[in-house]
Amino acid sequence: MTAPSSPPQPGAAPGATLGNTYEPPAGAPISMLYDLTLPVSIELGRTTMTIQDVLRLGRGSVIQLERLAGEPIDIFVGDRRFAEGEVVVLGEQFGVRITRILSAKPHAETGA
């Protein structure tokens, strides 16, 4: 007697079942993905403010972030934390120098 198979997950590839991940055919070259465009975001820090404090903001206001000066900044690709870096000045523009690429495996202490 065999166990019943799980129903397909909505939006899953044909033949995919709940609990299994879809794997593309072995012959699919990764170069097919090279032209995809993904959003890249740089996060200097975060803070929490009351609505009253936000409404008081004006030109020249300073928002203190929950990050120390000199700490690495976070670089996100899509919604995933991808790397850490440092702010650099390139002429009259800001840039980011990547200092560390993060592991693909999530870490329990950071959740990244």
Describe the model.
This protein has a 4-stranded antiparallel beta sheet, with no helix packed on it. The chain has one helix at residues 51-55; strands at residues 40-43, 73-77, 80-90, 93-101. It is mainly beta and 112 residues long. It is elongated and about 55 Å long. Strand 2 and strand 3 form a beta hairpin.
- The N- to C-terminal Cα distance equals 42 Å
Percentage of residues in strands? 25-35%
What is the CATH fold-level name of the domain at 30-101? Answer: Surface presentation of antigens (SPOA)
SSE series = EHEEE
Main sheet attributes: strand count, strand direction, barrel closure: 4 strands, antiparallel
Q: How helical, in percent, are the residues?
A: under 10%
Instruction: Trace the largest sheet across and list its strands.
Output: 1-2-3-4
Shape: elongated
Low-confidence stretches: none
Q: Count of DSSP E strands?
A: 4
Which CATH class of the domain at 30-101?
Mainly Beta
- Please, what is the average pLDDT? 82
